[in-house]
Amino acid sequence: MNKEQVSIIMPVYNEEKTIGEVLEKLLNLPLDKQIIVVDDASVDKSYDIATGFGDDRIKVIRKEVNEGKTAAIKTALQHTTGEIVVIQDADLEYDPDEIEHLCKPIIEQKADVVYGSRFRIRKESRVLYFYHYLGNRFLTFVSNVFTNKNMTDIETCYKAFRHYLIETMPITSSGFGFEVEVTANISKTKARIFETPISYYGRTYEEGKKITFMDGISALLYIFRFNLFSTSAVKNYIQTVNEKLSREG
């Protein structure tokens, strides 16, 4: 597999128990990479652990006010330099060793965007909450109705993009709305969207799970909003992306 620089974005909020191990795994990936950690005003030692690595491949950004995952990703996007941009959580629910598989279809020029599906299991998946499973499947189903895509997991953290597809995208949602907004916007372009199986090691609420019922309700409202309505900025984005994709064949 040819090496291309990959920018790995990692939003962090109070993940002192796992962030060190995640960063170790990311640094060991056989990819030319930069890692952008955005500490979203953590009140534990997450920031200190990240900066303590002292590795030039890791850029750590500290936010003084907690603004949520989407805002952290938008901050990180201002600093990405890689040909491919990947989202990574800091909680070890997703195995960094699988980032190579996530990037492979893009590197091989087969795809423009790749989603890592938790429902197409690569190795193993922890058995957890049935209602979360139903919620994820329902949200993906509703999204597919609007996008006419046959995706299996829009709420997955693991997403890889050709850099210009995500860096130029107008993102206006907050909290966990990023997953829905990006899916809606990408689906309106001519981008080739692929899925690849991933393993999933979910956490319980006692172990730090942050997703709540209200996050699911917000995601559903975002699906309607971003699929039914397009701002002028989104329309310009779609046109620009489609023109670039057409030029590239």
Q: What does this protein look like?
A:
By secondary structure, the chain is an alpha/beta fold. The protein has one domain (6-248): Spore Coat Polysaccharide Biosynthesis Protein SpsA, Chain A (Alpha-Beta Complex), CATH 3.90.550. 40% of the residues lie in helices and 16% in strands. It has nine helices and seven strands, in the order E-H-E-H-E-H-E-H-E-H-E-H-H-E-H-H. It has helices at 19-27, 46-51, 69-77, 99-107, 130-147, 163-167, 178-187, 213-228, 232-248; strands at residues 6-12, 33-40, 58-63, 84-87, 113-117, 159-162, 193-197. The protein has a seven-stranded mixed beta sheet, sandwiched between helices. Helix 1 (19-27) links the parallel strand 1 (6-12) and strand 2. Helix 5 (130-147) runs parallel beside helix 8 and helix 7 (178-187) packs parallel to helix 8 (213-228). The mean pLDDT is 89.
Chain-wise SSE layout:
Blueprint: E1 6-12, H1 19-27, E2 33-40, H2 46-51, E3 58-63, H3 69-77, E4 84-87, H4 99-107, E5 113-117, H5 130-147, E6 159-162, H6 163-167, H7 178-187, E7 193-197, H8 213-228, H9 232-248
Parallel strand pairs: 1-2, 1-4, 2-3, 5-7
Antiparallel strand pairs: 4-6, 5-6
- By CATH reckoning, the class would read Alpha Beta
Read across the widest sheet, the strand sequence of neighbours is 3-2-1-4-6-5-7
CATH superfamily: Spore Coat Polysaccharide Biosynthesis Protein SpsA, Chain A
Distance N terminus to C terminus?
22 Å
So what's the overall shape? globular
